[in-house]
Amino acid sequence: MDHEAPIVHDVLGIPWLDFNLSTILMTFIASAIVFIICTVGARKLQMKPTGFQNFMEWIIDFVKGIIGDTMDWKTGKTFLPLGLTLLVFIFVSNILGVITMVVFGHDLWWKSPTSDAVLTLTLSSLVIVLSHYYGVKEKGFKEYAKDYVRPVPFLLPFKIIEEFTNTLTLGLRLFGNIFAGEILLSLITKMAMIAFPLTTVVSIVPMVAWQGFSLFIGAIQAFIFTMLTMVYMSHKVSSDH
């Protein structure tokens, strides 16, 4: 994309500390949308759910299914709020840049926050840190540490490397898919402006088709991130892998 994200450089006088204002703004917007969705879904709860409450309960059951596929429910119920939050937040974040893009003063302000590797790697890092925390909490530090030398101590360096690769792959997979989608949408938009209005009419079909496909990809990536989060949690808190 020709348009660059608005970035504040050298924050607090630190040369390497930069803030992407667009990512920060869109993260707050995505969080606000998720908060509104959950608040509306939890209002006026009924024994026989209808409308939006029914939709929210379906999402909760869906996350329960993800957890149930990776660990027993007695252990996994602790992670229901985490899984629900990740699934909804990542999906909303993924589709924000699919709906539209807003450029102001040659700076790209409205986009998917998950098209920024910093955000996705931060999410994946938090997931890995949480998996270690709950692993120690559930098993105790001594028993948890023994998992790194099972079944043979020779595997210790490989298991340490695995923690870093899990963080990178979890974050970069999400970033790559969403960023690539936004790049292609930007290229289709440019094509539409080459010889207005002829190219605009021609570009409508691929634009709509790619937006629909991007919605599907956004949902799949939210599911994959949530599923892998529960898999990593299961590896740390469960005795049987």
UniProtKB/TrEMBL annotation:
Family designation: Belongs to the ATPase A chain family.
Iron keyword on record: no
Record protein name field: ATP synthase subunit a
Localization, UniProt: Cell membrane; Membrane
Bilayer topology: Multi-pass membrane protein
Taxonomic lineage of the native organism: Bacteria, Bacillati, Bacillota, Bacilli, Bacillales
CDD domains (alphabetical): ATP-synt_Fo_a_6 (cd00310)
PROSITE patterns: ATPASE_A
TM stretches of this protein: 20-42, 79-105, 117-136, 183-207, 213-233
UniProt key word Methyltransferase: no
Function as written in the Swiss-Prot or TrEMBL entry: Key component of the proton channel; it plays a direct role in the translocation of protons across the membrane.
Gene encoding the protein: atpB
HAMAP family, per database record: ATP_synth_a_bact
UniProt keyword list: ATP synthesis, Cell membrane, CF(0), Hydrogen ion transport, Ion transport, Membrane, Transmembrane, Transmembrane helix, Transport
